[in-house]
TrEMBL record:
Annotated region (Disordered), positions in chain: 1-21, 384-442
Protein name: Protein kinase domain-containing protein
Any one Gene Ontology molecular-function term assigned to this protein's record: ATP binding
Annotated Gene3D superfamilies: Phosphorylase Kinase, domain 1, PPM-type phosphatase domain, Transferase(Phosphotransferase) domain 1
Organism: Chlorella variabilis
SMART domains according to UniProt: PP2Cc, S_TKc
Domain PPM-type phosphatase: 466-747
Length: 792
């Protein structure tokens, strides 16, 4: 028998010694060496640069795709420990200390290669705490790639997928950071040319931003002379020599002038406003303003938008409640003439002052309210509520056994009704009874401390949920509707694979909805170990905890106001509140089944709604808690409240609220008038027949029926954010004047945006997705050396 010795282990690459050359000089030397076929010389030149430009092929491991654009694709990766010494600044001993981002160029010709080399040189030159940091690169054929510092997420993803809405102090701080980064670029003589939230990276705490993707950046002097070759735009808009993304382009660029520092300032202001509104620029306009319609192509094209911005002075809608100094600054940055706009340095100074003032004001309020109304109050009360037994429901208080109540909930996917029979005006959930009866069964905690209905699942057993959201203030002055998406709600608690969605409709102010948005993760985590019965109990318990914590906070705030001003000057006490609709998609392995099964739980308070698309048909999972329902009016009367016809419909109490069950926080003045914080819950086992669900506030459902909403999603490119946007715009086009917030979540999906055509509610072309997958795989195959010979 012949024994073959294993190949000898290669020693780790040695760190370069001797004087270092500048990155720009090293790139030029590498390009010349590659051109003459001296690859060893090119590698030596890259290793001698200030930033290692010839990292070994084995330096990167465990690559996972993050994004794929027109110019490049980005991966997350781990730097091999034996190569860590080649990349200064990383801490191999720290958790995740070797995690990096890898940007690989799509090189089709020599111009693409020149652009990628220029971007690497620019990143090395522009060293700033709020510009993407170049750690290293391999600028050698055939796999040209850069190694960058890995950030947690992007502003676009947080805004439009996770439903993140930063408070004003945080927003102003991030805006000041971006303006400072842009001022640094301009001082170096460079223009970015593609500033937008997708090119803004955020850390895990979302309190530090970095300007990224300098692939289109160029020298301002060369742009003014028209000497820069123009790459393909990243936003899909391309006409002659224009590059960038249409919605963020300045008027003069749309009219054919070259990009300049002033056009960057314009784009920065659009980006900052998007952070405030949470919606894409110009996308909240309806047919009443046809030139502003850009995304959904409901009869209007992108050329019309360009004309409206350039010639008619169209600008993005400012967020309701925008502070006056910020409003004036943004409007100044949007001036039609480039010379009338402030410089990036001036914008940075102004935003820095606003951020400091807002942070000081927030700190002063927190100090006045005290620990009881601050984060410590919320944490302690939520934790205490989590340790306490769940509050009894109305059925249990009436003496009904909990087992019977659970049975009714499982038999009624629209929610547990107050009476044994379903209301005549309750939405029909026919077809879900069988699924509901197969929903996860109750169970006690496991040995690991997690409830049995969740502990048996896991990330590997849970199909991904792809979500997108869209919000607009409509014709209201204030925005009180909010959404939040938690793509890994219990990952830190050892229960991966759970996605939570919250939709909140505030009233009498936005503070209650903001409280829910900012604290939902904490509320759910605190309830996780106490929810032994099921996911519905967890959601309802979290809302009950929120009611306790929020009202305690409001009590403390009011006590401070009374002590400072006196009862006469303090005026009437406000009583804000919010509806709440929570959805949890989670994995569950049923007893006796080898595979885990996805399930969906929903808890509802108010008139927001969740609609599931099953077999192409709309199935409503919640019931609207309004005084229009006879049973709700009877329940309010039994609780000591009164309903009367006012403003064209039935309303509750002196405040005239239309809904009878407000969200589990706020409305303290109406708790004694029958406005209940008891959530109705439903749990449904999901199957491959379930395509997506829609969760939205009443501003959508007042104008768009369940069936129309499902049909609109089916008729839109399968990107959840675009689907949510189309629903909201359709409601506006049909005359809605209310705030609207909508979330669309695709189930059993691979995340592809390949269009699917439906006929009578059924997928018409079943092979389209498979064909698209084959095309994507073919496109991912790297080109051969002879295909790239002209780029060397």
């Amino acid at each position: 028998m012949t024994v073959v010795a294993p190949p000898p282990l290669q020693p780790p690459p040695a760190a370069p010694s001797g004087p270092r050359t500048s990155v720009a000089d090293a790139i030029a030397a590498m390009a010349a060496a590659v051109q003459r076929g001296d690859f060893a010389g090119a590698e030596a030149a890259g290793a001698a640069a200030e930033v290692h430009l010839a990292l070994p092929k084995q330096a990167l491991r465990d690559l996972a795709p993050l994004s794929d654009g027109a110019q490049a694709c980005v991966f997350s990766a781990q730097l091999a420990p034996e190569c860590a010494h080649l990349v200064p600044g990383l801490d191999p001993a720290a958790p995740g200390g070797l995690a990096v981002a890898v940007k690989r160029a799509h090189i089709r010709n020599s111009a693409d290669l020149d652009r990628f080399r220029r971007e690497a040189a620019l990143l090395a030159q522009l060293r700033h705490p709020h510009i993407a940091r170049l750690l290293g690169a391999r600028l050698l054929p055939p796999g040209y790639q850069m190694v960058l510092q890995l950030e947690a997420t992007s502003a676009a993803s947080e805004l439009h997928s996770a439903g993140w809405r930063p408070a004003w102090p945080r927003l102003l701080r991030l805006a000041a950071q971006l303006a400072a980064a842009l001022a640094h670029m301009h001082a170096a003589g460079c223009v970015h040319r593609d500033i937008k939230p997708a090119n803004v990276l955020l850390n895990a705490a979302r309190d530090a931003a970095r300007l990224a993707d300098l692939g289109l950046a160029a020298a301002a002097a060369e742009l003014a002379e028209g000497a820069v070759s123009h790459a393909k735009p990243t936003g899909g808009f391309h006409k002659q020599r224009m590059v960038g993304t249409l919605e963020y382009m300045a008027p003069e660029v749309l009219l054919g002038s070259p990009h300049s520092p002033a056009s960057d300032v314009f784009a920065l202001a659009v980006t900052v406003n998007e952070l405030a509104t949470g919606q894409l620029p110009y996308s909240d306009c309806t047919r009443d303003n046809p030139l502003a319609h850009t995304i959904l192509e409901m009869g209007y094209g992108r050329q019309e938008l360009a004309a409206a911005v350039a010639a008619e002075g169209l600008r993005p809608t400012l967020a309701p409640g925008t502070p006056a100094p910020l409003r004036l600054l943004l409007q100044g940055c949007w001036a039609r003439q480039p010379g009338e706009r402030p410089a990036a340095g001036e914008v940075a100074s102004a935003l820095e002052g606003m951020a400091r003032a807002a942070e000081a004001a927030a700190a002063e309020v927190a100090a006045e309210v005290g620990a009881e109304a601050g984060e410590a109050c919320r944490s302690s009360k939520v934790a205490a509520a989590a340790q306490a037994p769940p509050a009894p429901s109305a059925a249990q208080e009436a003496g009904q056994p909990a087992s019977q109540q659970q049975e009714r909930q499982r038999d009624m996917p629209g929610g547990a009704a107050a009476e044994a029979s379903r209301d005549a005006d309750m939405p029909d959930a026919a077809g879900l009874a069988d699924a509901a009866s197969a929903a996860p069964a109750p169970g006690g905690p496991t040995a690991g401390g997690l409830p049995a209905w969740l502990a048996a699942g896991g990330a590997a057993a849970s199909a991904p949920v792809f979500t997108g959201s869209f919000l607009t203030a409509g014709k209201r002055d204030q925005m009180e509707d909010m959404v939040v998406v938690l793509p890994d709600a219990f990952g830190t608690a050892g229960a991966p694979g759970c996605t939570a969605v919250g939709v909140f409709d505030g009233h009498r102010g936005a503070s209650a909805a903001e409280f829910l948005t900012h604290n939902l993760q904490q509320l759910l985590s605190a309830r996780l170990h106490a929810a032994a019965v099921g996911a519905g109990q967890l959601l309802a318990g979290a809302l009950a905890d929120a009611d306790v914590a929020y009202r305690a906070q409001q009590d403390a705030v009011w006590a401070v106001r009374l002590a400072r001003m006196g009862a006469a000057a303090a005026g009437a006490r406000p009583a804000p509140g919010s509806t709440a609709t929570l959805v949890l998609v989670y994995p569950r392995r049923q007893p006796g089944q080898a595979q885990a099964q996805q399930a969906l739980a929903v808890a509802n308070l108010g008139d927001s709604r969740v609609v599931l698309c099953r077999d192409g048909q709309a199935v409503q999972l919640t019931r609207d808690h309004t005084a229009e329902l006879p049973n709700e009016r009877r329940r309010v009367a039994a609780a000591g409240g009164a309903c009367a016809v006012r403003a064209g419909g039935w309303r509750v109490g002196a405040a005239g609220l239309q809904v009878t069950r407000r969200a589990s926080i706020g409305d303290a003045d109406l708790k004694g008038e029958g406005v209940s914080a008891e959530a109705e819950v439903a749990e449904v086992a999901l199957t491959p027949r379930d395509a997506f669900f829609i969760a939205a506030t009443d501003g959508l459902w007042d104008r768009v029926s369940n069936e129309d909403a499902v049909a609109l999603v089916q008729d839109t490119v399968k990107h959840p954010g675009m689907c949510a946007q189309r629903l909201v715009l359709e409601a506006l086009a049909r005359g809605s004047t209310d705030n609207i917030a909508a979330v669309v979540a695709f189930l059993n999906s691979d995340g592809s945006t390949v269009e699917r055509v439906y006929d009578h509610g059924q997928l018409k072309y079943g092979g389209a997705a498979a064909a698209a997958a084959r095309r994507k795989a073919a496109a991912a195959t790297p080109p051969s050396a002879d295909e790239l010979q002209d780029t060397y």
